[in-house]
Structure formats: structure tokens, C-alpha cells
Amino acid sequence: MKDGMGITAAADGIDGVAWNVVGHTYTPKLLSDNAFIWHAVVPADTFVPPHIHPTQDEWIIMLEGALEVEMGGQTHKAGAGDTIRMPMGEAHGIFNRSGQTATCVFGVAPSRKLFDLFGALDGVTDPNELVRLSALHEVDFLPPPENG
After folding, report:
1. Which Pfam families is this protein grouped with (predicted)?
2. Do residues 43 and 20 lie in contact, with contact meaning Cβ atoms separated by under 8 Å?
3. Helix, strand, coil: what percent of the chain each, to 5?
4. In a domain? residue 9
5. Per the structure, how many domains does the chain have?
6. What is the per-residue pLDDT across 30-44, written as a single tens digit (0 to 9) for each?
7. Residue 79, phi-psi category: left (phi > 0), alpha (psi -120 to 50), beta (remainder)
């Protein structure tokens, strides 16, 4: 499904779609071959484990709250109004350690298979299945650290 001209209302996703992915609510707002953009509600104490998008650049624009992104061997903290840039091929993990819900807008370019991945992951809670499905859709999760 690709959307064309028009408006995606604030409370709506494309064709009424919204997904629960790793405890976050993702609502797609724009989908074309060139870009995929979604609104995200990221509850406190949730995270996306470190992973790599080998075929996409990714970014997050913070609306409310705060997130921490681990990449490049550092932890980067972002709050409302900040933009987080995660280049193609750069491993990154996204964490809400703020104690409050964060809202933001994510995007990737090009779209590749990420929209389809979120549909496949909707409600999946088994970490092994999340890793397997993600690999089929060009997202590679890193193994957990040896100490945890």
C-alpha cells in the first residue's frame, strides 16, 4: 500500500492502521517508495534493542518526553524539539529511561520493507520471532551483550 496526495489526520494512520511493536504504538502517516514516516508513543521503561538498518537512513523528531539512543559507542539524550539522526548501517538502540511517555515522529528513507515489517510484528512478544521476522525485512538485531 502506498499513499498519494492528501492529509493523514492527527489521530489516524494510513487506512486506519496502527501497530503495537515492542510495546510502542506506531501509527503510519506517510508511505512512498522514497520515505516512510510514523508517529510513535513510547511508554516509559520500554526500548528497541540495538539493531542495524543496512538499507535505510533513520531519524526521530522528538515531540514530547525524552529518549536515549545508544550508537557510536555513546549514549545520546534527546528531548522535545530534538532530531536524532541514525545513518544507514549504524547500529543503534532506542531507550525510554525518562520515567514518562515519549511521543515522536520516526522516519526512514528509502521505505524498503519496514512498513511490512511493522505489520508482521504487530503484537509479537517472542524476542526470537521478532529477530527472525526483522531479518526477513532488512533489519538486523545485534546479539545481547555477554553480561546481560
Report:
1. Cupin_2
2. no
3. 15, 40, 45
4. no
5. 1
6. 999 999 999 999 999
7. beta
